[in-house]
Automatic annotation (TrEMBL):
The active site is at S256 (nucleophile). It comes from Chloroflexus aggregans. Ca(2+) binds at E192, D328, D331. This is Penicillin acylase family protein. The lineage of its organism: Bacteria, Bacillati, Chloroflexota, Chloroflexia, Chloroflexales. GO terms for biological process: antibiotic biosynthetic process.
Length: 678
């Protein structure tokens, strides 16, 4: 295999400092560690022909091969060259084996992931892989392992600090990280718990009134036999929160953007597509750009180390981008267990025996492992109470009920990689949609363009058909009334080809009414402001090019900020300090620039306003879930999604008129004054 380095910067600073010293590694020695080899020739086992890797001035690899297997072997090699520690970290997180190398700080992460069972499911999925996908994944693994063998005496610094050698990679290792991605992007179970806790605090009727929703949303349906308490599921939320140090925060109100315009709206006469996915900030970044050319692949774009194929990008004929669909593919079922036997749970008029899987978590620095017994009903694993060792019986009444997680990602289905590989080779709309029939989880919005001038949109992912209920609250697991009855057929998921206005926008907002054809689409979508702003900017320019798209991506105008300025401008104030703040704010142009005083006021004012409006839930929202920023979630997302409803109510009535929707006989003027005073 030949490396062609092109123009690559040779001077790269590495800061090791105290970390290296603490690990007993001198900073000088650490600085002398070789960087990945990017020139010359190396020998890789199993290659059928020569492969060439050229790195451009940005360090992006361009891989040229004759055969598909060789192409993916080289991809695995360069991923491991540049991101071996990241890959190892992701592998261990996904298998729940992080405490083995970092100690007790990772026990909660391992306990959470072992409870969900990603590793158990991935092992089952290996046998379900189709031949071509297994072949290309195996080639990728050969490249990873070849790199590990070649650098075994000069591994990335993290391996030396932690004192271990990476084990050879296997097929199962490539199947666990997509499930971690699904975990970070499919979080309806947290909102279900929050909604249930709100019902317990204020009652079903008030909870329906307070619930953030799109105007066309139906009412919240509270199951007749369900009983909620304010602390329902807090153990699961606590564990997920503690695990988030490694698994990543899941319920952040940030979002991704994607849009596409037809050739009738561009200066070139051809479609133009843009995508900016927003995931958690990490060093290194999750994404890894690459160009693959060989066999029947000719594709470039963003890959994810420890996975095969280009997730976002283009080939010679089509381009595609993605945003998180935020559709609901999770349900919590309340199970009733036999107090005399914690393995038996009620199902209609009989008792069933749950599967029990013992998980042993090795912990660095501890002689004894942590042992948990995971109970699994036909709905899924019990996530609350938090898994521990089972005892023969319990006198604790709370132990007689438990929450099981039903989630599409917990069904063995290794087709995601196949979908990506087919997507990379799709040549038209028909083949594009055929590829997405294999996309299972997490559900994603796809925007599309091709060289024939077509643009389109598809929702892809497995979404359940519920016997009844809307998926917004935990439901009884014993009566059979809320079971899943299969999945929504792909052909019934929303899609669109060549809309009349020549534009398509996707920004984590609702992409279809609650009913699409015969299939209900449920979800917890983000506010529509970004989508509205993108659409407005697209409409302002008749003919677009790369520069106009760049202006859209760099736009920092806040639509809710401008709406809040209008309301504050109506407000009469008495104190001089509040008046000064008001005067600064109402002159703000809505631009969220780093040096904007008005933008800083808006950010704080919005935060205070939302919490004052929902003061009747203050104790619930202030309840700590975990350390760090996760402690404000998922309540933070709930409040942010309430903003459009709050601004609309505020604009509809005099500010000093009492609004019965607000608790305590308050007016919107009083709420605004309270927010400004804080």
């Amino acid at each position: 295999m030949t490396f062609n380095p092109s123009r690559i910067g040779r001077a790269i600073g590495i800061t090791v400092g105290a970390v290296a010293a603490l690990a007993g590694v001198g900073a000088v020695a650490a600085l002398r560690r070789p960087l990945p080899r990017t020139s010359g020739r190396v020998s890789l086992p199993g290659l059928r022909a020569a492969v060439e890797i050229r790195r451009d001035r940005w360090g992006i690899p361009h891989i040229y091969a004759e055969h598909n297997e060789d192409l993916f072997c080289a991809l695995g090699y360069v991923h491991a060259q540049d991101r071996l520690w990241q890959m190892e970290l992701h592998r261990r997180i996904g298998h729940g084996r992080l405490a083995e190398i970092v100690g007790s700080i990772a026990i909660d992460s391992d306990r959470f992931i072992r409870t969900l069972g990603f590793s158990r499911i991935a092992h089952r999925e290996v046998a379900l892989l189709d031949d071509e996908t297994a072949t290309l994944m195996s080639a990728y693994i050969r490249g990873v392992n070849a790199c590990i063998e070649q650098v075994s005496h000069r591994l990335p610094l993290e391996f030396t600090i932690l004192g271990f050698q990476p084990q050879p990679w296997e097929l199962v290792d490539l199947l666990v990280w997509p499930k971690m991605m699904a975990l970070n992007l499919s979080t309806n179970w947290m909102q279900e718990l929050l909604q249930a806790q709100i019902v317990a605090v204020v009652g079903a009727k008030r909870a329906v009134t307070l619930r953030p929703r799109y105007p066309e949303d139906g009412p919240l349906t509270v199951p007749a036999e369900a009983h909620y308490t304010p602390d329902l599921g807090t153990g699961a939320l606590q564990l997920a929160g503690d695990a988030s140090l490694f698994t990543g925060e899941t319920e952040t109100p940030q979002g991704s953007n994607a849009w596409v315009v037809s050739g009738t709206r561009t200066t070139s006469g051809r479609p133009l597509l843009a995508n900016d996915p927003h995931l958690n900030v990490a060093i290194p970044n999750l994404w890894y750009h690459v160009h693959l050319e060989g066999g029947d692949f000719h594709v470039t774009g963003a890959t994810i180390p420890a996975t095969c194929g280009v997730v976002i990008g283009h080939n010679q004929r089509i381009a595609w981008g993605i945003t998180n669909a935020r559709t609901d593919n999770q349900d919590l079922f309340i199970e009733q267990f036999d107090p005399a036997d914690p393995r038996r749970y009620r199902w209609r008029d009989e008792w069933r025996t749950a599967d029990v899987v013992r998980e042993t978590i090795k912990v660095k620095g501890q002689t004894e492992p942590v042992v948990i017994d995971v109970r699994i009903t036909h709905h899924g694993p019990i996530i609350d109470p938090v898994a521990g060792e089972l005892h023969s019986q319990s006198t604790d009444e709370s132990a007689q009920t438990a929450l099981a997680l039903r989630w599409t990602a917990l069904d063995p289905s290794p087709t995601l990689t196949r979908a990506v590989l087919k997507l990379n080779r799709a040549r038209n709309w028909t083949e594009f949609r055929a590829a997405l029939t294999d996309w299972d989880t997490p559900p994603q919005n796809f925007v599309y363009a091709d060289i024939e001038g077509h643009i389109g949109y598809c929702l892809a992912g497995r979404l359940p058909l519920r016997r009844q209920g809307d998926g917004m609250l935990p439901v009884p697991g014993w009566n059979g009334e809320y079971e899943w009855e299969g999945m929504i057929p792909f052909d019934e998921l929303p899609s669109q080809l060549d809309p009349a206005n020549g534009t398509i926008v996707s920004a984590n907002h609702r992409i279809a009414p609650s009913t699409s054809r015969n299939a209900p689409i449920q979800g917890f979508w983000l506010n529509p402001y970004r989508a509205q702003r993108i659409q407005a900017l697209l409409d302002e320019t008749k003919q677009h090019d790369v520069r106009s798209f760049a202006r859209i991506q760099n736009d920092v105008l806040s639509l809710p900020g401008k709406a809040l300025v209008e309301q504050v401008a109506r407000l009469q104030l008495e104190t001089s300090i509040e008046q000064r703040v008001r005067d600064l704010f109402v002159t703000w142009d809505g631009q969220l620039r780093a040096d904007s005083i008005g933008g800083a006021i808006y950010d704080e004012l919005r935060y205070r306003l939302l919490r004052i409006v929902y003061q009747e839930l203050a104790d619930l929202f202030k309840r700590p879930v975990a350390l760090g920023s996760f402690s404000v979630l998922p309540a933070n997302l709930y409040l942010e999604c309430a903003l459009p409803m709050i601004l609309a109510r505020m604009a509809e009535r005099p500010l000093d008129q009492v609004d019965d929707w607000l608790s305590g006989g308050r007016s919107w003027g009083g709420v605004l004054r309270a927010a400004l005073s804080q």
